[in-house]
Amino acid sequence: MGSPMGGLRLALRIARREAMRYKGRSVLSITLLGIPILGVAIGASAYDTIDLSAEETAEQHLGENDAYIEPVSPGEPITQYTWDGQYPWYDMTAPAEGEEEEAAPASLTDMEVLAALPVGSWVVPYDLYGGEEAQVETPDGVGGIGVVGYDLADRTYEAAGLEYLEGSAPVRDEVVLTAAAAEYLEVGVGDSITLVGGASDEEHEVSGIIEVPWDLNGRYAIASFFPDSSSGWLVDVPEELTYEDALALNEIGVTVWATSLLDRPSTAPDDDFVMSPDDDYLLTIYALIVVVVVMEVVLLAGPAFAISTRRRSREFALMSANGATPAQIRNTVLAGGALFGIIAAVAAIAIGVAAVAIGMPWLEQLFGHRSAGLRVLPWLQAALVAVAIGTGLLSALAAAVSASRVNVVAALMGRTPGRKGSKRWLVIGLVMVGAGIASGLAGITIWNIQLMAGAIVLLQLGLVSCTPAILALTARLGRWLPLAPRMALREAGRNRGSAAPAIAAVLGVVAGGMAFSMVVAADNVRMESHAEHMLPQGSLTLNLYNQGDYDPETGEMVEQLDWDAAADEAAVKLGQRLDDPRITAIPFYDPVGSCGREAEFPDEEVYCDLALLRPEANMCSYWSSPAGQVAAEGNRPTEEEMAAAVDAAREDPRCDETAAGDGYGIYGVPASTDPDIVAAYTELEGEELDAAVALLEDGGVIVSDPWAVTDAGTAVFEQTMQRYDEGDGSSEAVAVYEVELPAMAVDKELLGYSGVFLGPGAAERLGMAEWDWGRTYLVETSTVVDSAVVEGVNEDLGGGLADGGAAADVAMTDYNDPFTFYVMLAVAGLCALITLGSTAVSTGLIIAEQRQDMTTLGAVGAGPGLRKRFAMWQTVMIALFGAVLGTVAGVLGYALIREALNRPLQSQYPFETLYGWELPWANFAIILLAVPVIAAIGALVFTKARLPSERRLT
Amino acid sequence: MTVLHLKGVSRVHGSGENAVNALIDTDLQIAAGEFVAIMGPSGSGKSTLLNLAGGLDAPTSGEVLVEGIVLASLNKKKLAAMRRRSVGYVFQDYNLVPSLTAAENAALPLELDGTGTGKARKLALAALEEVGLDAKQADRFPDELSGGQAQRVAIARALIGDRRLVLADEPTGALDSTTGEEVLKLLRRRCDAGAAGLLVTHDARHAGWADRVVFLRDGRVVDTSAPLPDAETLLEGAES
Questions:
Q1: How near does any CA of chain B get to the CA of A491, in Å?
Q2: Domain limits at B95?
Q3: In A850-864, which residue ranges form alpha helices assigned H by DSSP?
């Protein structure tokens, strides 16, 4: 009896030699198996390379120093859980009655900090957040960088890892720049930078360029004369900073990042770190993605094995004649799958790791910190090898089973065995489709993701199993077709062993691509429904910003800007690129202070919240339901209460809360009676627009919530006066007023999150005031404005206005998400490419099998064009079958995915926008129309017209 | 000792109106050391008989026994083992595995049977030497061999180990006459050494190497004879 190892060696040897004999096919299979592995290998290696351990993070931030300390709650004790003081716990408890609360100091001095540290410690100010913002001249105008007040002559900074790439520490009025700042400003050592925006411009020579290893993208200038904006101190202690030292610092409200604390386990509450049900849900989704990707790869790589097996049927018959058991023949094919899997994994991992090694500088820039060297996450890479071998084996499985059942006599005689089994496969396929649908329905009913995942797999495999039978059935339609398509159809039916795997491959990739595209399209609609809609698509606005300072006492700008002069100046700059620019101011209003009710609160400071009320009769039934009342009290209703309330709300037209603003108050509300502005925001025309303008002029208001308008044609606003308690940070409502204004409603999608457009009179009655920090203008021009024009205008405006007192930019309203568009295009492109590749390969192989028939046709007088036409129809057949079946599978798959995604959203109120049936028509068109046409053209162009002559085949 | 025994064997392909009787109620015995040739026109059932003898095909009725074992009583695994150890095939088209060298092709049944690679190669080299191929040719792939060399490899594979039954289906069909004669000499020598040989051929001269000639027509054995000095006479006799 044969030993398993001996048989395995033989199988592997044959597989290896076969792979070498048919290099093209081998490379194709290995590539298909390797591409997903490559993606994961790159991701895993990149993650492991850029992710720093606590020790490495400490090393990068502290260097040779002992600690970095940061006063997060000066004077107040805190509890620190981790070595780096993440998530410190503040004691928020109010002092006991009668107990005087001690006034906490606003900050700590060096001396206070040193007092809490061991004797002989040394501290220098340090900033983790990029310093104070300053304006600086850039090659394109004026930009912002940070300025940090360090005395770099102190060796503590160098010990912290701040490394000079060029030059040396600054003296006198010199500065040192970070590498990112130097690149941004396009300066080097010896050049000068000019700080603007102060009383006068300051020019400083650059003495050195440094790299901060944990902040590669930080743009800042460092010099001792810059103001101290440090977030904490770097600490060097004579011995080691102990846990007790850290506790002493915590006592005065200071967190500690210290290498010596690394060994202490985190004391954070456990519940922050346990896996939540959401994690479980995500894990299932990830598992589902892995299953689907493996299945797509199996479907893609499978045809190469199937076709190879068909070609080698005589070889397998010969092995059988020499005593090979079916298992040994099966193993020979499976060895090919395993071999390809191993090669694919090793090659993909090698390429992936090399790509990460080459791309490490880019990766470090992207994440903004240095890595600790190239790493590969070995356990995951080992798992990838296992997955690749598994995928290779699965890809070869069907072919292996088919090879072990080869009709020895027929194969040795060179005959094509009779076509059997279509009906059996049809039955199996239909059973699998049925089981898939049942599994899907069951999964939806009892909410089981595993059943839904199983349904997707069963549906696809079921359709794949039906493919030979569908081909055989369709071949019967051939009698009504001209010769070339008739032959193509019948050959696809006859050579199901070649055509079906190719169709399965196309089916697999189209199904995956379609389902993914539909999820992306539906998600895009959901995102759009959340986006704030203000001006119409393509509107151009000019924005001016007051660059002056705020008065911390009054909260108002210290210097009022001459907005009209700044706007005139901006208009001139717009005119450099735009024809006939006309700007119209759009005043924006916010509630200010106590909304004009200061007289009613002479002794206390209150602020005003504004809200638009609905009449009681127009309130959604949800809010009066048990669930709504529980939720209104800030508690969580039970699932049953919630389901009942949401179900009832769905039947209630008043429950369309998408019309009722975002619930976060009324801020940044446009207010105007200019018909152009009103029309732009409300999209009203003609008499409706005239009526709206008249209403606004009469002190009225336009709202986007029709249920907010009373029967009397008014809207009621609620002004809630809040008293802020500086002690515990809480607010308390001290008075509520209602203001009723004439109102009309427009489309619920309009008017942004606040859902309100005011007349100036209404704004005044509501106690709102125009922004003093900025102005917005609607820009009209005869120039066709695109992103390049916008970029150009912004370059012109980059230098600022009003002698640096104002900054300006223009923006074009664009609600489209280009990312979604590109993702969908990429998915469609990938599907198209694989479809074209699959059809081309299988068509080529089928035509190779037709060599004898073509010779016969040539002998009886067929013209050379017949071969081309035959190839074209063969290609169209495969592409169309695959695309149609794939689309069906994709749509069915999406139906299940949609249910899975919508289920958690359906029990929410206000209603969450659900994943809908957004059909990606462009993708459908590309896959169902463009791809077959391109494949047909490709077949016509690349197929040799000459009919083959017989040659000896060995 | 009888190595191959066909007892009332029939083979029908298809069913109903499409049924084709490829072999009808055929009896045949071949003893150890005996070399039997099968002749007959195309479609007479020669290859069917050979396939049934080697267990590649199963009879519709009757029994095939190899070394006293009824093939129908064996499951697929045992049947494969029987082919590895007892039966050697030689085909007209050489039928070598293209991804294996000559030596590996010759050693294929042994390797499939679990013999170690080294030992299998040693035996294969010996078998190849027996058919006139040296070690250099042994490491060539099939597409690097001439037709005669390839057929020698196929014979070496059929003879390797302790095979007791050698089945040859037109083994000289693709060879020139000189090479063909050499191939038949090899088969004859193997039978003289104790194996039972069954040769399917169209060529009466090749049948002349056999101890006995069985003539088939329309699936039936129509004559059995010892070889005549003039093989053409045999053919005339069969047609009368």
A1: 23
A2: 32-51+90-239
A3: 851-859
Are A321 and B114 in contact (CB < 8 Å)? no
Which of B42, B66, B93, B97 to probe by mutation at the A interface, max A CB count within 10 Å? B97
pLDDT digits (tens, 9 = 90+) for A845-884: 666 666 666 666 666 666 667 777 877 888 888 888 888 8
pLDDT tens for A767-814 read 888 877 788 898 988 888 888 888 888 877 876 677 767 888 888 888
- Give strand ranges (E) for A127-228: 132-138, 141-148, 163-167, 175-178, 192-196, 202-211, 220-222
Residue B151 lies in a domain: yes
Check if the beta carbon of residue A873 is closer than 8 Å to that of residue A489: yes
**The domain spanning residue B126 has which CATH number?**
3.40.50.300
The reported pTM is 0.66
Tokens 């500088």 belong to residue: A361
pLDDT in tens, A899-908: 777 777 777 7
**pLDDT score of A46 more than 70:** yes
At A250, list the tokens. 């915590």
Does residue B107 sit within a domain?
A: yes
Q: Measure the CA–CA gap between A441 and A456, rounded to whole angstroms.
A: 11
Chain B residues closer than 8 Å to A325 by CB:
76-77, 80-81, 112
Interface mutation vs chain B, best among A308, A311, A322, most B CBs within 10 Å: A322
Alpha helices, DSSP H, located in A814-850: 818-849
B46 touching A (Cβ < 8 Å): no
Q: Environment class of residue A140 by beta-carbon count within 10 Å: exposed (0-12), middle (13-18) or buried (19+)?
A: exposed
Structure tokens at A215: 């902040």
State how beta strands B2-13 and B61-66 pair. Answer: antiparallel
Q: Where are the beta strands (DSSP E) in A538-614?
A: 540-546, 582-586, 588-591, 606-613
Q: How far is CA B46 from CA A804, B15, B191, in A?
A: 104, 21, 20
| Cis before A910? omega within 30 | yes
Residue A738 backbone phi and psi in degrees, to 5: -120, 140
Q: Do A320 and B56 touch (CB under 8 A)?
A: yes
Question: Which residues lie across from A132 on neighbouring strands?
Answer: A147
CA distance A504 to A498: 10
* CA–CA gap between residue A779 and residue A783 (Å, rounded): 11
Let me know if A772 is exposed, middle or buried by CB neighbors in 10 A (0-12, 13-18, 19+): middle
The predicted-structure confidence for A108-154, as pLDDT tens digits, reads as follows 777 888 888 888 888 898 988 878 878 787 776 667 788 888 888 88
Number of domains observed in the structure of chain B: 1
Structure-token match 């300053």, residue found: A134
For chain A, the residues whose C-beta falls within 8 A of a C-beta of chain B are: 1-3, 6-7, 9-10, 13-14, 17-18, 21, 314-315, 318-328, 408-409, 412-414, 954
Range in A453-467, A861-875, B55-69 the model is least confident about: A861-875
Name which of A1, A319, A412 is nearest B91 (Cβ-Cβ): A412
Structural domain contains residue B114: yes
Nearest CA in chain B to A316: B97
Residue B103 lies in a domain: yes
Q: Does B118 contact chain A (CB < 8 Å)?
A: no
ipTM: 0.74
The token pair at A196 is 């603007």
Asked whether the predicted pLDDT for residue A41 surpasses 90, the reply is: no
- Cβ contact (<8 Å) for B83 and A322? yes
